[in-house]
Structures are given as C-alpha cells and as structure tokens.
C-alpha cells in the first residue's frame, strides 16, 4: 500500500478547490495545507462547506477545479473537467460518517474484516485476529458477534472507527460522528478519538462540539462561504478569533453577546 | 332463502379441484421463478445511466403496471400467436403472461430497494476501498434484497391470486375447474366458497410471513 509517511513534505495539500451543486457554490477556492501530526478540526456554519470538504478529501465527490496532493503525490486532480482520483492514495485515508455507518447485514467482526479480505486480500484468520484485538482495545471484544442493530449508537461509532483502522489509514476523517448520538454516548466515542490523537494519528474532524474541538485539535479551521476564513491554534480560533466573521460565529455558538 | 347447502356436491368432485389447485401452484411457482430473475434484470436496466438501455426497460415496466392483468393475459393469449406465429400451449402462455407481469412489478420492488440503501452505505464502502463491483455485491445487494423481500413475497402471492385470470383462456387451473364444477353441479355457493377458502388458506400464511419480515426489518434497520 502507498505509504504517505515516508517523505517529509506536507501530508495533505489542497489547492484552489472549487465545487458547486448546480447553482450553489459550496467550495470557492479552498486552500489548506496539513502537516503530519496535525489534528485539524473544521468548524463553521451549515452550508459553509465543512462536510463537502471531507467528502472531497475522501474522494466521494467530484470537484470543478483545484487539486489535492497526499504525501507529495498527486491524489485528486481535474483533467478536462473530469475529476481524476488516485484510488491507491484514497485507500490510505479512512472515514467515519454520522449515520448508517455499519453494514447492517454483517456482524461487527464481519464489518471489520470485509475490506481487509476483499480489498487487500488478507487471509480471513489473520484479519479476524487483528479485528478481535482492535475490538478488545476499544472495549468491544464481547460484541464481535453482534449485529449493528443490537448495538448502541456509541458502540456503532466505535466499531466504525475500528473498521476504518483495520486498513492502517495514514489520515482519518470524522464527519460529525457524534452529532446523532444521545448526549451520554458522546464521551465514549470522543474517548476513542482522543486515544488515536495520543498516538499521533493525523485527523480532520468536522464537529459542532466546541469543548471537544478545544481538547483534540492541534489546529482549528473556520470555514464559511466555501473558503477558509481563519486558521490557527484552538486557543486563537476558539478563544480570541482574529476575524470578525469567526468571532460572530464563536459568540453565537457559545451564546455570548458580542 | 330456500337454497339448501349440499357440501357433498363439492366433496364428491374433489379430484378435479385438486388438479386445478396443482395447476395453479405450478403457474404461481413458474411465474415467480421468472418474475424474481427477470425482475432483477429489469431493475438493473431501469437503473442504468445509459438512456438507451433505461428507456425500453421503463416502458416495459409501465406497460405492465398501467394495463389490467386480465387484458395482458387475453392479449398475450390471442395476439402473440397471431403476431409472432408462436403458440406454446395454454399453460406456457399463462406462465409467460403472469411471469412478465410479475417481472415488471418485482423490477420496481428491486429498484426501490436498491435506491433505499442509504447513501452513507455506498460512501462507507468507497471509503473502505471497495471497488464499485465489490460494493454492489457485498454491501448494496445484501441490504437491498432484504429490503425487497416483503414486497417480492407480496407480489408473489398477488400472482397466485391473479393466476385465477388464466381460467378465461382455458388453462385448467383451480378457478377453471371451479367454474366447470359449479356449472355441472349447479352448486355455485359451495364451489366458489370452498375455492375462495383455498386461495385464502394459501395466501394468508404468506401475508403473515410478510408482516413478520417487516417487523423484523424495522428492528434490524434501526
């Protein structure tokens, strides 16, 4: 598999990303450079392009213009108006979604081993052993045989994270993974993400949970109107934002009058 | 009412009725085999991004959905032999007519189920590196087939009932035998009531299974 950690250039470089759905321009020239070990939290108003940014980065959406390189290697480019995705690079990125993350017809263990066996041709026995070890680590060892419908929302998201980790990703994307959870289940999912952070897993996280953002981010990006408005350490962007637009948003989120 | 029930009139002629039921069951099974396989192909064609492939399939589905089954059967029985110089025996013609009708309805059931698989499931498959074929085989179809199952079963049981229509084109099914028996014995109440009960006795358990599957699915998809 393509190893994005070998050379010392930026991990991800996004340049001039443009994307529209019909007349609605969602990304309008987005430039982000991400270093290794960066844990980027993306915040911003709805429709500001946060989720689209993650979906583009995962290779799930076409773009109208711009390019992305990963570990110094071209990943997504636009040629003659067509989006070209290097699927080998894409396989080194993992993603967890807000809803319907697990495959309902497969048990937890089968969810974990599907891609390693089908995509990487790993043997079932070895994949199952790795899967069981990961589940044990996340406190889910006893649920290996359960089906997604038998799990709580928090357990489902933790399994989804484990499933993505089975492919040894060089970058993990989290798209509002706790937004649909009951409040008392949020912490167990965030705990797993903090563990990954402690192991220096590069991440891009879209969340509305500002407390969590402050705790996990090495860097916060405020996206609005399809561009990066402010980009800096969490203390700056969440605490003392420089840009007026960021300040307005942060104040509204924290219910503080400006 | 001075009609005196004589169940003996029917029970004495059980033989033909049983033979009729056997023909009805054969019609149903054959039409379902055809409808399940052909319907799946129809769904794939209807979902094709290529217009030239999609449009004929859509036309096929709409034709069968928008004309009465009885007209389809009569048309098939009388017009196909004249137009194509093709006559295959009343039973085969009956199976073909019912099977094509079912293929159209099952095609819609498969299509709706495939489209009902949440987009996130496809996205998750892509994010895990599965190819489009792998994602279809291992993620979309297993879920879609489960979603389609109750509708496919319902359609199957509807065809069991609709198969009574082939009696008018001289296929000796349950309804055909019932009509001749009622005419022969002058016992329409006994005969048709019994036949209605037979249709009910076969359909009702299947509709219960459909209800059970739907309740189970409601839990599984949560």
TrEMBL record, chain A:
The lineage of its organism: Bacteria, Pseudomonadati, Pseudomonadota, Alphaproteobacteria, Rhodobacterales. It holds the Pfam family ABC_tran. Residues 12-250 form the ABC transporter domain. It is a peripheral membrane protein. GO terms for molecular function: ABC-type amino acid transporter activity; ATP binding; ATP hydrolysis activity. SMART domains: AAA (SM00382). Belongs to the ABC transporter superfamily. It is found in: Cell membrane. It comes from Rubellimicrobium mesophilum DSM 19309. The keyword Ribosomal protein does not apply. Gene3D superfamilies: P-loop containing nucleotide triphosphate hydrolases. InterPro entries: AAA+_ATPase, ABC_ATPase_HisP-typ, ABC_transporter-like_ATP-bd, ABC_transporter-like_CS, MetN_ABC_transporter-like, P-loop_NTPase. This is Amino acid ABC transporter, ATP-binding protein. Keywords: Amino-acid transport, ATP-binding, Cell membrane, Membrane, Nucleotide-binding, Transport. GO terms for cellular component: plasma membrane.
UniProtKB/TrEMBL annotation, chain B:
One of its GO terms (molecular function) is transmembrane transporter activity. Pfam families: BPD_transp_1 (PF00528). It is a multi-pass membrane protein. The keyword Transmembrane helix applies. It comes from the Bacteria. The chain crosses the membrane at residues 20-47, 59-78, 84-103, 147-171, 192-213. It is found in: Cell inner membrane; Cell membrane. This is Polar amino acid ABC transporter, inner membrane subunit. It comes from Rubellimicrobium mesophilum DSM 19309. The lineage of its organism: Bacteria, Pseudomonadati, Pseudomonadota, Alphaproteobacteria, Rhodobacterales.
């Amino acid at each position: 598999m393509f190893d994005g950690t070998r050379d010392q250039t930026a991990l991800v470089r996004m340049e001039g990303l443009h994307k529209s759905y019909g007349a609605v321009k969602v990304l309008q020239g987005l430039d982000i450079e991400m270093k290794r070990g960066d844990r980027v939290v993306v915040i911003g108003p709805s429709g500001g392009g946060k989720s689209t940014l993650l979906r583009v980065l995962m290779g799930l959406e076409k773009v109208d213009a711009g390019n992305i390189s990963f570990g110094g290697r071209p990943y997504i480019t636009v040629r003659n108006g067509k989006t070209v995705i290097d699927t080998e690079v894409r396989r080194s990125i993992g993603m967890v979604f807000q809803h319907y993350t697990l495959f309902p017809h497969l048990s937890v263990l089968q969810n974990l081993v599907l891609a390693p066996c089908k995509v990487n041709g790993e043997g079932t026995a070895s994949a199952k052993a790795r899967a069981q070890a990961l589940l044990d680590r996340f406190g889910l060892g006893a649920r290996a045989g359960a089906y997604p419908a038998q799990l709580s929302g928090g357990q489902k998201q933790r399994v989804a994270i484990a499933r993505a980790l089975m492919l040894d990703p060089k970058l993990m994307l989290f798209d509002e993974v706790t937004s649909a959870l009951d409040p008392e289940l949020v912490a167990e999912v965030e705990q797993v993400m903090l563990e990954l952070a402690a192991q220096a897993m590069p991440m891009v996280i879209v969340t509305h949970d500002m407390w969590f953002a402050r705790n996990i981010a090495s860097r916060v990006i405020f996206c609005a109107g399809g561009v990066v408005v402010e980009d800096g350490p969490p203390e700056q962007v969440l605490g003392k934002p420089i840009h007026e637009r960021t300040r307005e948003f942060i104040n509204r989120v924290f219910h503080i009058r400006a | 009412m001075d009609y005196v029930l004589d169940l003996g009139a029917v029970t004495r002629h059980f033989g033909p009725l049983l033979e009729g039921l056997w023909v009805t069951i054969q019609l149903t099974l054959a039409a379902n085999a055809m409808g399940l396989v052909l319907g799946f192909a129809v769904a794939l064609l209807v979902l094709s991004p290529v217009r030239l492939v999609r449009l004929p399939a859509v036309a096929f589905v709409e034709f069968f959905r928008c004309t009465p089954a009885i007209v389809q059967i009569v048309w098939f029985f009388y017009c196909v032999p004249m137009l194509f110089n093709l006559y295959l025996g009343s039973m085969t013609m009956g199976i073909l007519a019912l099977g094509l009708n079912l293929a159209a309805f099952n095609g819609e059931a498969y299509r709706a189920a495939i489209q009902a698989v949440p987009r996130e499931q496809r996205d998750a498959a892509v994010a895990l590196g599965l190819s489009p074929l792998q994602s279809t085989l291992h993620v979309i179809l297993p879920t879609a087939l489960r979603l389609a199952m109750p509708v496919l079963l319902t359609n199957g049981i509807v065809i069991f009932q609709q198969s009574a229509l082939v009696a008018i084109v001289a296929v000796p099914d349950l309804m055909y035998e019932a009509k001749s028996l009622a005419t022969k014995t002058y016992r329409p109440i006994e005969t048709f009531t019994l036949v209605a009960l037979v249709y009910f006795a076969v359909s009702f358990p299947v509709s219960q299974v459909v209800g059970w599957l739907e309740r189970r699915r409601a839990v599984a998809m949560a």
